[in-house]
Queue: 4 jobs
Job 1
Amino acid sequence: MCDMIDSQSAEKIGRMKKLRRTLSESFGRIALKKEDSNFDEICVTKMSTQNCQGMDSVIKPLDTIPEDKKVRVQRTQSSFDPFEKPANQVKRVHSENNACINFKTSSAGKESPKVRRHSSPSSPTSPKFGKADSYEKLEKLGEGSYATVYKGKSKVNGKLVALKVIRLQEEEGTPFTAIREASLLKGLKHANIVLLHDIIHTKETLTLVFEYVHTDLCQYMDKHPGGLHPENVKLFLFQLLRGLSYIHQRYILHRDLKPQNLLISDTGELKLADFGLARAKSVPSHTYSNEVVTLWYRPPDVLLGSTEYSTCLDMWGVGCIFVEMIQGVAAFPGMKDIQDQLERIFLVFGTPNEDTWPGVHSLPHFKPERFTQYSPKNLRQAWNKLSYVNHAEDLASKLLQCFPKNRLSAQAALSHEYFSDLPPRLWELTDMSSIFTVPNVKLQTEAGESMRVFGKNNSYGKGVSNSKH
């Protein structure tokens, strides 16, 4: 009798163990399926919260902005490579990022699958997106130290794309700025921000697939020297402010505004690009780098060593670009160093003191004896073409304020009288709607040329040096 009971108990225990194994395997398959469907979101979230120092998972709308104490990205007046290796950071990023990107690596040892980023509702179900062989390279647009940009074509839908191919090295891993750019752009959907279609990861490269845009503002101005058509300046500036207002409301700074990073489509759409230096605001630690923004577009507070800045950093760049579009030359084309750059700024706005700029004496690089004492001028004395356009000088003066807290915000600038003759519907557009969907809004022909006359070397943040800026 005891033997029978023992036998039944053993059989029952065996069935329970088998059932447990079956349930465990079933739950495991369900979990893997869920992880697979959410892989893209998991990957970018992990990159943004673990790999990028300063890319905090909780973003708060604070006035001052911190900076990573370790990562210092160098900028110069004539060239900048956004894929320059950040000191002491790349190896760490490599190991943690690979853990994310190889999340679905098969046990058979195959190459890690591609990380998908889709731009249309139907594409997530398509097996063709996210694969390197889904895109045909047509021509090289430019090359930097860590990335090469190609004009390409999607084999899935036939659309033109820009392929930013980032070379990976086993020792260094994925460049820090590439992770930052992909992480931020993934969540930004706006007509005036370049669209990231897809992300492709292989053992040798990381490829960011962008919408193809024909040229950039720098090339456009080169094609039309002497200043742009006043109406075109207004439409370009409106779009720039519209894109900036969108990211600033999401507590993101671009930190590298310059004409090369403003793409222009063949219809005249302006799109913010190159978010490799962009940052999300978070808990203040007052440690943001002062080595941001190409020298010509760098505000005086940053030039003087300030590391406590907010959206006002980008607004100085907007003012410089505004003046350059109207005047036809850069507002402050420093030719030597930071000292020379500051002298050019003070020549127009006057050498600052505690009355005109509270707290200027506490900035690390401000030594009054080092600077010539200048008196402020009217902006039209420095840039005469501002006087040709109604309200242009007033708007420029409110953007180009040496004291950062006095600079106009992007949202406030959109309401300035300078734009008062534009159709009211422009202020009612949804984020993804182009301003050119509004009747009678179109670019004027510049100097008898068609809008389709463009150069080909769009930047997309590829880090190619430029002798002018």
Note: The longest strand covers residues 135-143.
Job 2
Amino acid sequence: MRIRQARLDDLDRIVEIELENFSVWEAIPRSVFEAHLRKIQTSFLVAEDEGRVIGYVEGPVGPQRYLQDQSFTEDIEDHSYLPGGYISVTCLSIAKEAQALGVGKKLLTALKEIALENKREGINLTCHDYLIAYYEKHGFVNEGLSQSTFAGETWYDMVWEANTLRKSNSNHVSVALPYSSTACG
């Protein structure tokens, strides 16, 4: 398995995986993914196995501690050219045939590495209550109910602080960078 930066030619497969996992109301539209592929410079990653995309994680860099609903639109602003800020995950999705194989963990680990390399303050996302434990297992902290109204659902703000890894060598993330051709281990 290889983690790499997403490309425009991954769009069809990304949309296919999105529709496998999310309701019509929660699924990010194709036009939004296309805009994100064109605008997000560092934090739109795919997991690829034998040349086939099996999962992705994506979202822009922004100054806010919590994910903003505007991140789910075509009009996103990616502040990856600025220092600091948070990577705001708008979607982490794994193909049905690759679920429970650790693909999500590898994508989140690679995203954390990007956050550290680019000196981000951390990563934020929103999730349903039944996913809180999953993200906590990966170092995110539940900071309570979100103000997000995306898809008319109830969301929880989850934040991973980059300094939690900077302070502890024993927990340092070691992965192949997404631009590398080596497998993520």
Note: Residues 169-185 have pLDDT under 50 and may be disordered.
Job 3
Amino acid sequence: MRADAARKREQVVAAAVDELADLAKAARKGEPTRLSLDQVAARAGVGIATLYRHFPTREALLAAVYQQELTRLCDAAPKLATSGPADAALLGWMTSYLDFIESKRAMGDSLRAMVASGAVTQAETRARVGTAMSHFLDAGAAAGIFRPDIPPDDVVAVMVGSAVAAQDHEQAQRLLVLLIHGLRQPI
């Protein structure tokens, strides 16, 4: 891919990320949340034809956004896990994951279609998030903060369940704090 084409592709993905973040905020207020490809193109500073040249379907764009954001989130884990107290680092990372989930809710039916088509797999996502989680659990166990016997997959399941079950962002945040307390070594 030529450099200018790659740059335009990146612009479109970045604009879609920003648009989804705005839609997540709107959803918290009870407003409609449908991603407009025209708005994404305008936000990226490209024409709609350029958007479609790189992403022939809404699902193709959203799959690129999903993969980029998941990669960004998971790649940050190793450094973040060692950047301070493990419990605070994990809570910060889980809050970012919560934001990731909230922005993906705006994808709605498109995300379900991507899962159905195999463009996004729950198993791959869970494995990547589990690997990221292990960095925090290992750092916390080494520091004597977290219990060493908790599998990363269990923490991921509780974290995702909290995000899905919560009535709003504030409740989800409180549930994550409870999860952190449950990981701590007994006194």
Note: The mean pLDDT is 89.
Job 4
Amino acid sequence: MPEGHVIHRLARRYGASFAGRPVVAESPQGRFADGAVLLDGQTPAGAEAHGKHLFVEFPAGWLHVHLGLYGKVAWGEPPVPAPVGQIRLRLANTTAYADLRGPTVCEVLTPGEKDVLHARLGPDPLRPAEDGQRARDAIARSRQPIATLLMDQKVISGVGNIYRAEVLFRHRLDPLLPGRDLTDEQWKAIWDDLVVLMADGVAGGRIDTVRPEHLPEAMGRPPREDAHGGEVYVYRRAGLPCLVCGTEVRTGTVQARNLFWCPTCQGRA
């Protein structure tokens, strides 16, 4: 499932491609036919993201998309080709088109419905008005491991498996530390780090979490080769030596998701 920086990049592209110009909207698959009728011929005002949720503003309402595990968007320029495959929603204008396939959610919301959805989500490090305090309050009340809480979109939005593993490593935190045992200082360091790391992800289109002294050129090691891209400390590095201490990186399962950590760097204090 895409992490939050991917959805913010997608919102930027939808805004740049479609805001201020009328669009043709259609649902070749047919599963969003009623929604496409509402949006067809309208002029989007812009787009935004909250965590893993994408919103595009139309006069008729807000297009809300959650890609889930299988959703993808393919982009192109005119001439717009005949639809191939299961396209849930196609938006097109004179300069671009976007084909949405396989989302978990594709719907049109009223402003009130959109507000209700925002209220259910935790603060997003990529939304400028957020300060992370609501997440801190929820974590401080919880006995659940911090590794679980960071993946709970009702606690904090946009953090996925990669950012979760990496930010815990960067701050030498035991993934199984109960949320209520996390200090205010530790939480502030996590939040501030996520703000920077995820903004870098939006800018560069990939997740890089390794500090300069641990980059391949600084350590004389080969660059990481992985479909997820980016230089990381522990994510999908199980069985390899930790870049900081040399201990073998471990993996386990927490809430049915793979977790990666270094038992030496992230030992309980």
Note: The helical segments are 4-18, 33-39, 111-120, 133-140, 146-149, 161-170, 184-204, 216-219.
